[in-house]
Amino acid sequence: MRILIIGHSEISPMRIWLTFLLLAVVAGLQADIARASGQVWGADYFPNYELTAHTGEKLRFFDDVIAGKVVAINFIFTNCTDVCPMETARLVDVYRLLGDRVGKDVHFYSITIDPENDTVPVLAEYADRFGVDGANWKFLTGDKRQIDQIRDKFGLFGSAAEEANLSNHNINLVLGNQSTGHWVRRSPFENPYILANQLGSRLHGGKFTSAYTSRNYAEAPSLRQISAGETMFRDRCSSCHVISGGFAPTRNVRALGPDLFAVHQRRDPQWLRRWLAEPDKMLAEDDPVATALYAQFKVIMPNFRLDRNEIEALIDYIASETERLRRSKLATGDHAEYQPDLGAGVANRAGH
Ligand code: HEC
Fold it and tell me: Residues 174-232: pLDDT tens digits?
């Protein structure tokens, strides 16, 4: 399954998105890569190549990275302006949900598929942008051919044509328990609660169910009728953005992107629509607002290939959520308007 299909312009992206979700569900059912055959992939299956972590540590892929562990592994490259920052962001959600268990009984690894560019200092900066603690989540680089072989062992190495363009790389995450031989591939678009549950409980044979789920299912959003815009926001935007205005409860951690409260009012409408359609292009063109935001957040906002309807649905949702929060704020008698912290030098309304 490749994110590439979303970019296809002749068919409605929404329909492709739905197809993609359906495929993801089906693939999820079929994704138990190794367990069905009853075998445990060991040192005879996985190569033991040496990799270097963003912390400078040398780690052997089999002995140090996966042997006897429950792991989450994704393959990334830091120059990616396409959907890949979303992968890391979603994994950050999962990482936060698992809390202090990460690094103890669940281990996180991101392996670069572009080691020539992604050197140790580049990866160290990338980990820092996502607020990742290097003791618990390692970003790894090494020899390109060896890394490709590791990907191949997980069935994540594409055809020559796909590999020629790094943006087409397979976006799946691999979750697994090396000692039981249970490995699954998951889409990074999957709900972080489900991914966290997989890592925290199912891959441990259910051992941790009660300790883990009681806390996190209580935090999971309750079911109610939600609009297309809200669904899209949750699936694709909420890993990096809140809509809060300092009023809605937010996770007590640094967000990866700006608070979108009232963003439809503080930005020029055309600017906002173009930004949602092609943020990578605007950054490449040195758009002043985009550049100033990037200087502050240092994470690249992904290009989701959103079509017009999707963009309007998202803006409608942001607008209605902003109004809902304003009303509930006024109801408490607090009339002060929220002043978003936009960082130095970022003008409120883009002049176009
Ligand atoms: C991987 C993290 C990430 C994801 C996912 C993401 N964004 Fe962003 N977004 C950012 C960052 C970071 C910025 C600041 C500009 C930059 O650094 O590229 C930003 C900027 C913005 C802005 C401009 C904010 C302002 O103050 O002007 C809007 C609007 C926005 N994003 C909307 C969205 C929407 C809608 C989605 C979902 C479809 C989304 N973003 C998904 C990271 C993300």
Answer: 889 998 888 888 877 777 888 888 888 778 775 443 333 333 433 444 444 578 888 88
CA within 13 Å, CB half, 15: 5
Per-residue tokens: 16: 């492709």
Instruction: Round to whole Å and give the CA distance between 205 and 197.
Output: 11
Q: How many Cβ atoms from other residues are within 10 Å of residue 18's Cβ?
A: 11
Whole-number Cα distances in Å, 147 to 3, 171, 227: 21, 15, 41
Give the whole-angstrom CA distance, residue 192 versus residue 89. Answer: 10
- Ligand 1 and 200: CB distance under 6 A: no
The pair of structure tokens assigned to 168 is 């087409």
To 10 degrees, the CA torsion angle through 226, 227, 233, 234? Answer: 20
220 alpha carbon – ligand 1 mean position (Å): 23
Q: Please state, in angstroms and rounded to a whole number, the distance separating the CA atoms of residues 241 and 253.
A: 12
Instruction: Tell me if 161 sits within 8 A of 72, measured CB to CB.
Output: no
Nearest C-alpha neighbor of 57 from the set 115, 124, 144 = 124
Closest CA to 79 of 240, 283, 238: 283
Burial class (CB in 10 A: 0-12, 13-18, 19+), 155: middle
Over residues 85-101, the pLDDT tens digits come to 777 888 888 888 888 88
Long-range pairs, 36-42, Cβ under 8 A, ≥24: 38/181, 39/181, 40/178, 40/179, 40/180, 40/181, 41/153, 41/178, 41/181, 41/183, 42/178
Ligand 1 pocket test, pick from 241, 274, 316 with the greatest ligand atom count within 8 Å of Cβ, gives 241
